[in-house]
């Protein structure tokens, strides 16, 4: 199966998500008859008990609510492993010139080659009820101005999107957080030892806002964070280490907040007499 990531491909998915956004990357005054550029990018919020989530994307479309109907952004007909898009690794999933105006929905049409590989190496079919016929949908309220590029970022949360059935089957019910990059910030840092393969959770009001894992060098990057204050919980997935905590990290739009070097302490395995 081809699980490579294409740099230009159409991909957008959600269960039901209302979201009105899109950013202007060009401050100049565009011509009224110039096309707008619709860009869709994606990354993933990972999960630690699944090795691959392979999704077969046939096409992605957007709906122009001013009477022009559905517009095809791309028809990649490719299989993508969504778990390649972790720890700040983002890919341009679709880019196309479109007419300006109001767009109210993004629709992803899936093919039949959808699978999941669990941590034990077993491959299972990933069921997508009705997706092949009607598509996975994101409801949006986006006003695209002529001559301007608009970017929609999608954070696919695998941990909330894969449902295991009683007969050891798996169903894809996508949960996606959509956001405008220009109004969000990031948190970066390094966890040592890197061999701990740490999971980093960004917490707001005792709720996990988003999460990621460190890379091979122990580095991490949390992206798409709304401007507010976050606490981090760092947990090792390999070895015996105590959890670490970093509190009161303020995030501002368009800025990167440095969490510094976070050292995990080994768990004291000595039993008291």
Q: What distance lies between the first and last C-alpha atoms, to the nearest angstrom?
A: 55 Å
What pattern of helices and strands is seen along the backbone?
A: EEEEEEEEEHEEHEEEEEEEEEE
Query: Globular, elongated, flat, extended or rod-shaped: what is the shape?
Result: globular
Structural class: mainly beta
Number of helices: 2
Uncertain segments are: 1-30
How many beta strands in the DSSP annotation?
A: 21
Biggest beta sheet attributes: 10 strands, mixed
- Give the overall average pLDDT: 81
Tell me the fraction of residues in β-strands, as a range: over 45%
Topology summary:
Layout: E1 18-19, E2 36-45, E3 50-64, E4 69-74, E5 78-81, E6 91-98, E7 101-110, E8 115-118, E9 123-127, H1 131-134, E10 136-144, E11 149-157, H2 158-161, E12 162-164, E13 170-172, E14 176-179, E15 185-192, E16 199-204, E17 207-213, E18 219-225, E19 229-235, E20 244-250, E21 256-263
Parallel strand pairs: 1-10, 2-11, 9-13, 15-21
Antiparallel strand pairs: 2-6, 3-4, 3-5, 3-7, 3-8, 7-10, 8-9, 11-14, 12-13, 15-18, 16-17, 16-19, 19-20
């Amino acid at each position: 199966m081809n699980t490579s990531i294409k740099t230009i491909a159409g991909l957008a998915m959600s269960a039901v998500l209302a979201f009105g956004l899109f950013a202007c990357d060009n401050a100049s005054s565009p011509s009224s008859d110039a096309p707008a550029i619709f860009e869709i990018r994606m990354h993933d919020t990972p999960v630690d008990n699944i090795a691959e989530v392979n999704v077969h994307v046939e096409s992605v479309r957007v709906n122009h609510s001013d009477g022009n109907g559905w517009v095809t952004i791309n028809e990649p007909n490719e299989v993508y492993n969504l778990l390649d898009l972790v720890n700040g690794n983002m890919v341009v999933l679709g880019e196309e010139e479109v007419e300006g105006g109001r767009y109210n929905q993004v629709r992803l049409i899936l093919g039949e080659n959808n699978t999941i590989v669990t941590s034990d190496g077993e491959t299972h079919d990933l069921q997508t009820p009705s997706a092949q016929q009607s598509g996975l949908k994101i409801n949006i309220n986006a006003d695209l101005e002529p001559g301007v590029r608009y970017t929609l970022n999608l954070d696919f949360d695998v941990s909330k999107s894969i449902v295991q059935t009683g007969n050891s089957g798996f169903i894809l019910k996508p949960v996606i957080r959509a956001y405008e990059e220009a109004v969000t910030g990031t948190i970066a840092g390094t966890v040592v030892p890197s061999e701990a393969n740490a999971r980093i959770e960004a917490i707001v009001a005792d709720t996990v806002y988003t999460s990621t894992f460190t890379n091979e060098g122990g580095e991490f990057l949390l992206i798409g964070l709304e401007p507010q204050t976050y606490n981090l919980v760092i947990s090792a997935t390999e070895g015996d280490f105590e959890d670490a905590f970093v509190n009161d990290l303020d995030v501002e739009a368009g800025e990167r907040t440095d969490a510094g070097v976070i050292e995990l302490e080994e768990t004291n395995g000595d039993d008291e007499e």
